[in-house]
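tmp note - Receptor-type tyrosine- phosphatase eta-like isoform X1
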Amino acid sequence: PGPPIIDSIILGLITLNVIWFPPSERNGEIINYKVCASLIGHPSICNNEPKTIPSSGSTIRGLNPGTRYAISLSASTGAGEGTAQNVSRETVRSALDGDVKADVTSNVAVSDTKTQIGFRLPSVNLREIGKIQRFDVIVKRWDTTKDKKTDLRNTPQSGLTHFNKSANGMKAYIAITKKGYENNMKIVVGDNSKSSNMSRRKRRNVDEYQNAPLIEDTQYAIFIRVFYNKDK
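out:
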């Protein structure tokens, strides 16, 4: 068959919803439709829908905020899959994306001003908060002559480490991990606390992250990495 006709695409933070009409050219009865969102270097996320087009369309979940995806929509008959209609769209950008400045102007008390930095989390809308599963606070000793913010932000999760493997902070490490997200939550980096994103029941043999004291008179880069609940 020919390509189905896309009527609308509704974009969310980590979802997109496609509504369409049947193809005008057919070589038999439609068996099903396939809707896919793809990103270079990543597996496509696809939904297979029945021959009766859902009135609410098809929602693809588990996407990343502020990311442009290639979207394809095709129909199949007994003769096989037909030509797809292809478009590209960008999901809604998170309020936390990019160079968002944390609130360091309000009074955030720390027990040691030489080895700790205190700040408050930036505010985002409640709808986004409801989709946040957890966040990590990532720390690195900063060399202004060679370190770049974009390199640090683009470091994959697998490239991060624990403090005890960070060469005293020369490699980016996870200092804090917390479930959920609260606007203006107080964060203190360097208070030597430990955290884990596992529940108490599952903490056996789980490495905890150490929020190690910072080095006095040393420049640091600190950023927040947010993880979304892909099912919401």
